[in-house]
């Protein structure tokens, strides 16, 4: 009986933690000029860069700058002329 109870509690805890992680992903971005990306670049274009240099091919999940904008030092996505 106690093994069954422990097993059920373990399954419940794992399910709850998986739901919490999934639910925590907003899939929307609150900052201006950003959009959600399930597999974006690990090396975003930053102020002062005109083209990307060498970068890994790993996916970066989360909010990234929309096309035509670059990442400023304060982590805001801006038009390149506003750097």
UniProtKB/TrEMBL annotation:
CDD domains: TIL (cd19941). Gene3D superfamilies: Laminin. Residues 1-23 form the signal peptide. Residues 31-83 form the TIL domain. Keywords: Signal. Belongs to the serine protease inhibitor-like (TIL domain-containing) family. This is TIL domain-containing protein.
């Amino acid at each position: 009986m106690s093994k069954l109870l422990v097993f059920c509690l373990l399954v419940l805890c794992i399910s709850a933690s998986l739901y919490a992680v999934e639910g925590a992903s907003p899939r929307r971005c609150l900052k201006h000029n950003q959009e959600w990306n399930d597999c974006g670049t690990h090396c975003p274009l930053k102020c002062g860069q005109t083209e990307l240099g060498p970068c890994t091919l790993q996916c970066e999940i989360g909010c990234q700058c929309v096309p035509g904008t670059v990442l400023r030092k304060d982590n805001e996505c801006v038009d390149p002329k506003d750097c």
